[in-house]
Each structure stands twice: as structure tokens, then as C-alpha cells.
Amino acid sequence: MSGGHGHGHSHGGAAAHAGGRHRWRLAVAFGLVGAFFLVELAAGLLSGSLALLSDAGHMAADVVTLGAALVATRVATRADTTGRRTFGSYRAEVFASGLAVLLMLGVSVYIAIEAVGRIGASPEIASGTMLVVGVIGLVVNLVALVMLRGGAGESLNVKGAYLEVVADTVGSVGVIVAALLVRATGSAWWDTAVALTIAVFVAVRAVGLGREVLAVLGQHAPTGIDPADLEQALAEVPGVTEVHDLHVWTLTSGMDVATAHLVTAPQDAGQQVLDQASRMLRERFHVAHATLQVETTDRSECRGADW
């Protein structure tokens, strides 16, 4: 077995550098959303509005997400001092996303239980407070959107935070609608209905995010990459006669990793095969880090792991 390896290293790369450049945007958005979350939570408890409480819960998840994005831009460039984190600490972002999923599901369950408890009751809802807080929330979210939009096209972390704030803006609109309907009709049912709508929206997003987290932790093939297509593309590299032991997975968002054994004829230049295969993986599949081992056809077997 010929021991050649091809590496495409860009763990930090342009994405991490872009995230560092736009870190101030994340910090400002984190401060705005975090401060308003406290205001909305207090207003929801004082006004008796489930819509405000449900949106506050959604904003709490956004605070975690924005905080994770901030941490990720710092962790991505931090050197490992233990010598044991061979892939660095990039999955800190994934674990933080998992925490956000649990928080979002908890909020959804709480709102659903509270809504069921209000069946047959007519709670007093301070629609004026709802309306004021909803409008302030909308303004805060719009400011955060403007702040994050400038970096969303360059950094995956900033893009993820931007999409979270977009969803929060929808929640603020829902609170405003609920407040206007409660004020116009005098019925607290509208507050409960909007709260349940927001809770379902949050739960659906939580399940979707949870599936992504589990896919990364389970080392599934990255979204948009078919391992069979990747194997076929490697087999088409000039000089490659066979591909086996192919593995491809996501380390964290925007960082896909692959390993494979490539079989070539003894006379073929191993380094040339490695260079062409690595370049193809970067340009066609956006796999920035690939470890490729070259074997020649005169070897009777590949002595690798038996699993």
C-alpha cells in the first residue's frame, strides 16, 4: 500500500477570516437582541400575553444562536494547546445549536400547555403593552437585519444569524397583529391563537435544526453531496483505476471533510493523481479538507481497518 496523502487545508480559510471581519456585526446584533429579550420577557409576564412570551422564547433561542456564532468566530482561530483536539474546536457551534434546539422545543411545549390551560377562561390582556413591545421588537429586529446583511454573503456564521433574525422579525409582526386584534375585538383568544402559531413555527424550525445537528454529529454525508457521485468523480481522475474506503462528512457548518483510498497503476505518478483529485474535490464538491491515500495495483490487498 503506497502511503501518499493529499490534503486540502482551509479550516479557517476565507470563511473564518470573513467571520472575523464581521464579528462586530454579530456583537451588535447579539447586544440588541439580548437586551430586547429581557424587555419582552418582562412585558410578557406583566401583560399576561402568551404571544409576547412565545416570541420571547424564540428570541432566547436566537440569543443562543448569535452567541454561538460569536464564539465560533473566536474558536475557529484559537490554537489547540492540549494536542488532543486534532480537528480543533469547530464543533462547539454544533453543540450550541443543539442547546438552542432544546430551548426552542421547551418554549413550544410551555406555550402549548399554557394555551390549553386558558381554554374556557378570559384572561385580561394588556393589548397596549403588547403593541408597544411588538413595535419596539420589530424595530430592533430590522436594525439587526441591516447590521447582519452586510456580512451574510461572506460568512456562514453571519448568514445563519441573519436567517434567525429574519424569523424573529416574523414573530414581532405576529405580536403586533395579536395586539391589534385583541384591542379591536376585546377577545384574548387572538393572543392565544397567535401564540400557538408562533410556538408551532418555533417547534418546526427546532425540529429542522435538530435534524441538521444530529446529521453532523452522526457524521452523515453533507447536504448536497451524494457519496456515489463523489466516488464516481474520483474514479474519473486520470490514473485512478479504483476508489474504496470513501468517507465524507461535515465537521461543522461550511467545513466538509473526506477521506479515500485511490488505486493507480504502478507507473502512474502518485503525486499528480493526488493533486488532481484534491483540486477536483475543492472545486466541484467544495470539500476543503481531503485526505487521500494512493495504492498501486501491484499490491495484493489494502491492509486497513476491517470496519
Tell me what you see in this structure.
By secondary structure, the protein is α+β, with helices and mostly antiparallel strands. It has two domains: 204 residues, Alpha-lytic protease prodomain-like, CATH 1.20.1510; 75 residues, 2-Layer Sandwich (Alpha-Beta Plaits). It is 64% helix and 11% strand. It has nine helices and four strands. It has a four-stranded mixed sheet. The longest helix has 30 residues. The radius of gyration is 25 Å and the shape is elongated.
Order of helices and strands: EHHHHHHHHEEHE
The 3D shape can be described as elongated
Rg of Cα set: 25 Å
The CATH topology annotation of the largest domain reads as Alpha-lytic protease prodomain-like
Low-confidence stretches: 8-17
Binned strand content:
5-15%
User: What is the first-to-last residue Cα distance?
Assistant: 18 Å
Major beta sheet summary: 4 strands, mixed
Count every beta strand, where a strand is a DSSP E run of 2 or more residues: 4
Output the structural class: alpha+beta
Can you name the CATH architecture of the largest domain? Up-down Bundle
CATH level-1 class of the largest domain: Mainly Alpha
- Count of helical regions: 9
